[in-house]
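Regression test case RT-17, inverse folding.

Input:
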């Protein structure tokens, strides 16, 4: 196997061999980095020299043998039979010197000098008899005694036939540096530098090893992976052969495998000890090593060692040439050393002003360090991670900061912040730290403003009211001993949201004292205490106060809020808009905030906002969307994580599934366990109302009545009985009507009507049910009024119910055409809401099995009309298709009866119809002018 890329050096050595034969006594120093092929070059040269008749004395040095006195000299002389052709006297002298070297270390200085002189004289005599090559590999690792002896010989061989050939690394340390200077002073000294292989050299090497010409692109890839190191090159070729056995050798590309790994380790073990340390540090610490190593050994800066590793083919810049090197060398470092390195790096980087996140990474890998600044720094890094939505990383940093912090108050503060942040990801897991927080509070390490109130809210969230009350007593005692304005405000926030969302808990913790909600909800006050005023706004709405200021205040809170670990501010503001019937605002805010929550991947916020969105969609009769959002909310957070608020998403899901006729799925939702304490919250009353609707739909009338009455009893006792989003009185009335208890039903309905004149949705639906107790003519008037109200309510589901009832009354009164038009409109609206039971009940028996295909076909036909009729004709046709007379149409559109007649004539002609009752249905959805036509038909 030939040596590639070393022809120049071999020629230079051959020339020196020739000069030796002339008695020049040259010295050749072959210098180059680790793995560059110095040993192979020396072996090749000595083999050629031996063939040409030279006597070879060879030795190889090692760092492990550097302490063995005369170790190199022993290697040169260890076999006397190698001196064939020498005189008996010279051979005996050399052998005797070799045998006596062991005792030289114990001899006097004069005796050592005498032995050295005898040895040098014997070598010179040997050279007179036979041309001599004295070859020492890696002389920089030779023992000091042998170096001194070789220097003594070098000074005396100027005119001899001895050629000294040494190999070394450029970075020399004492005592070798002194010996090398001695060699360099001799007149026959020559330095031969050997560097990495070039791309051309590698191409020749590949051709030699593969037996076929190698392409330049492949050679360039091998050069990039090896840095031109022959040691690494040979390993890459072998790994590539093993990995691509049987493939075309001309297409061979570098593959780093086990052989390469071994070569990398071998390479590192052969560089200087500081350079080897640097390589391992780089594998562990990365670029931060450069900030650590100078302090560790300031007399030995890393620049020269970086250069040594680069020349060895390991580094490019301050990084490893091949990613596998990082893995291999990282495995060379023990866990204990790795932790020590990272700890040291953290200290030095902190002292040098590095970013907290950078320092924190090293502290985490070290498993913590005993520095007073470490816990606050880790907390700062955790805050930074939260700002970048890196929640798992933030939790890890908080946990470590808490674990290594010896200071009680700081430790409690870190634990509180960690728990509050964890609430955004998984409230159930956050709950596991509550016992520690309670202990910290009892020890006085937490105050009302530093976590105690959040602890109370979290306990309430999960129904631990007694425990929350105990913590509140501790807080009250703290505030009594040391009044704090911010702490008092925190207590007021708790008092207000408990009073409206969990009134029984409020009584348990605050007694019968009702919070004052008369505070002005002004922008300046909201900016100072947004949570307090969000709770105040909700209290105002639920307790029947003036809603407009509360709505404005809630909107202001939302505008200035973001998705922070403090979870109650935004939900309180959204619920204010929700209970004030501001459905469009709730939709808009939920959409915006949900986008932010999903972009930042915050599961708790996603769940809470999806739950509120679902409830708001129920309010609009958008059942399918509501069910999807409630299902998403329940899937984004565990039941334990939801705590008592699970009642709201469950209620939305049960209500939507029931209204869509998916009773089995609703029954499954009802089978999901909920904490008993849920029913002491406002969310629990939503759940009772939805369960009552399910019982009503499935014929369990007494169970339905019980749920509606229980819901009403709770709301009345809490002073929030007038909330429009839980119309429990209407539920009671509907159950009693179906039970035949008409008089009692009417009582509830009249009370609902009296209380909710300002809510078209509740008032209109109650009026619809009340109409069912009247005579047909009275029922007609009541239902017309109900339809008028519900058309402005934004709830298509309730409007579909009212239209269906109105159509039936028209049919009962003999107005079949108008009845058919209105019922079909109700049917289309019910289908749009995905309310299958309602849509099926609106179909005649003959059409029910076809599931409304006739209605659908008619709707498709109406779409085609838009291209034929003018806008004015379309408006007239739309009202006519709904059963309105010419006079009613004229009054609606503010035109004359004659104009209506002219339009109708053109409409029938263009559509090729003979009568107006043949007009297609669904025209009201296109022209936009007939949206309220039915409700306006009073004559």
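Golden output:
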């Amino acid at each position: 196997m030939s040596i590639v890329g070393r022809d120049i050096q071999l020629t230079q050595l051959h020339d020196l061999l020739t000069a030796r034969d002339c008695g020049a006594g040259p010295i050749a120093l072959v210098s180059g980095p680790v793995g560059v092929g110095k040993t192979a070059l020396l072996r090749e040269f000595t083999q050629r020299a031996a063939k040409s008749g030279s006597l070879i004395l060879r030795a190889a040095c090692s760092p492990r043998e550097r302490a063995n006195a005369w170790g190199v000299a022993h290697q040169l002389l260890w076999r006397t039979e190698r001196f064939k052709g020498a005189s008996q006297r010279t051979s005996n002298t050399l052998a005797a010197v070799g045998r006596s070297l062991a005792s030289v270390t114990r001899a006097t200085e004069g005796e050592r000098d005498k032995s050295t002189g005898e040895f040098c004289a014997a070598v010179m005599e040997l050279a007179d008899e036979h041309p001599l090559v004295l070859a020492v590999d890696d002389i920089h690792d030779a023992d000091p005694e042998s170096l001194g002896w070789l220097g003594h010989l070098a000074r005396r061989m100027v005119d001899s036939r001895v050629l000294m050939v040494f190999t070394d690394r450029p970075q020399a340390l004492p005592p070798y540096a002194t010996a090398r200077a001695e060699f360099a002073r001799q007149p026959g000294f020559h330095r031969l530098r050997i560097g990495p292989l070039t791309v051309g050299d590698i191409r020749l090497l590949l051709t030699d090893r593969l037996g076929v010409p190698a392409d330049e692109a492949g050679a360039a890839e091998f050069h990039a992976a090896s840095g031109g190191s022959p040691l690494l090159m040979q390993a890459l070729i072998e790994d590539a052969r093993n990995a691509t056995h049987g493939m075309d050798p001309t297409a061979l590309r570098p593959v780093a495998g086990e052989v390469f790994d071994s070569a990398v380790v071998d390479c590192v073990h052969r560089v200087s000890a500081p350079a080897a340390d640097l390589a391992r540090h780089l594998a562990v610490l990365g670029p931060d090593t450069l900030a650590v190593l100078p302090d560790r050994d300031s007399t030995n800066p890393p620049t020269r060692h970086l250069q040594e590793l680069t020349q060895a083919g390991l580094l490019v810049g301050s990084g490893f040439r091949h990613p596998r090197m990082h893995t291999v060398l990282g495995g060379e470092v023990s866990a204990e050393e790795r932790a020590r390195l990272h700890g040291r790096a953290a200290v030095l980087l902190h002292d040098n002003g590095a970013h907290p996140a950078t320092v924190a990474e090293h502290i985490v890998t070290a498993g913590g360090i005993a520095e007073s600044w470490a816990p606050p720094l880790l907390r700062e890094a955790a805050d930074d991670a939260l700002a970048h939505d890196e929640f798992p990383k933030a939790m890890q940093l908080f946990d470590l900061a808490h674990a290594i912090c010896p200071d009680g108050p700081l430790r409690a503060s870190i634990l509180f912040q960690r728990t509050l942040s964890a609430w955004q990801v998984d409230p159930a897991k956050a709950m596991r730290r509550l016992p520690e927080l309670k202990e910290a509070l009892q020890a006085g390490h937490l105050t009302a403003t530093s976590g105690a109130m959040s602890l109370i809210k979290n306990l309430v969230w999960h129904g631990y009211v007694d425990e929350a009350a105990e913590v509140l007593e501790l807080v009250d005692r703290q505030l009594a001993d040391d009044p704090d304005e911010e702490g008092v405000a925190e207590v007021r926030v708790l008092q207000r949201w408990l009073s409206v969302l969990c009134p029984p808990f409020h009584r348990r913790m605050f007694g019968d004292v009702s919070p004052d909600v008369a505070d002005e909800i002004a922008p300046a006050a909201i900016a100072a205490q947004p949570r307090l005023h969000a709770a105040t706004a909700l209290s105002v709405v639920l307790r029947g106060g003036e809603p407009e200021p509360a709505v404005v205040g809630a909107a202001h809170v939302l505008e200035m809020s973001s998705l922070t670990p403090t979870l109650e501010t935004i939900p309180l503001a959204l619920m204010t808009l929700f209970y004030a019937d501001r459905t469009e605002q709730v939709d808009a805010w939920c959409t915006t905030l949900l986008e932010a929550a999903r972009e930042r991947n915050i599961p708790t916020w996603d769940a809470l906002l999806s739950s509120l969105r679902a409830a708001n969609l129920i309010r609009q009769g958008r059942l399918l969307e509501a069910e999807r959002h409630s299902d998403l909310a329940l899937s984004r957070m565990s039941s334990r994580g939801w705590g008592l608020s699970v009642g709201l998403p469950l209620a939305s899901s049960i209500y939507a599934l029931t209204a869509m006729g998916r009773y089995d799925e609703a029954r499954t939702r009802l089978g999901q366990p909920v904490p008993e304490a849920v029913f002491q919250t406002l969310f629990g009353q939503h759940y009772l109302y939805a369960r009552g609707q399910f019982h009503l739909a499935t014929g369990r009338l007494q169970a339905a009545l019980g749920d509606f009455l229980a819901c009403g009893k709770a709301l009345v006792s809490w002073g929030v009985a007038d909330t429009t989003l839980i119309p429990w009185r209407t539920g009671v009335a509907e159950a009693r009507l179906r039970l035949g208890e008409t008089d009692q039903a009417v009582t509830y309905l009249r009370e609902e009507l009296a209380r909710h004149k300002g809510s078209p949705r509740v008032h209109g639906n109650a009026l619809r049910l009340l109409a069912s107790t009247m005579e047909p003519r009275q029922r007609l008037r009541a239902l017309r009024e109900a339809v008028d109200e519900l058309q402005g309510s934004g709830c298509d589901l309730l409007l579909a119910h009212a239209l269906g009832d109105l159509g039936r009354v028209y049919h009962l009164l003999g107005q079949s055409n108008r009845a058919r038009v209105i019922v079909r409109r109700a049917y289309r609206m019910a289908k749009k809401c995905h309310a299958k039971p309602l849509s099926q009940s609106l179909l005649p028996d003959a059409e029910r099995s076809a599931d409304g295909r006739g209605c659908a076909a008619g709707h498709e036909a109406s779409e085609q009309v838009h291209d034929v009729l003018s806008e004015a004709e379309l408006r007239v046709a739309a009202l006519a298709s709904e059963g309105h007379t010419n006079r009613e149409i004229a009054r609606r559109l503010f035109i004359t009866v004659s104009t209506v007649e002219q339009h109708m004539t053109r409409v029938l002609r263009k559509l090729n119809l003979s009568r107006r009752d043949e007009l297609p249905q669904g025209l009201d959805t296109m022209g936009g002018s007939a949206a309220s036509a039915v409700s306006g038909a009073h004559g």
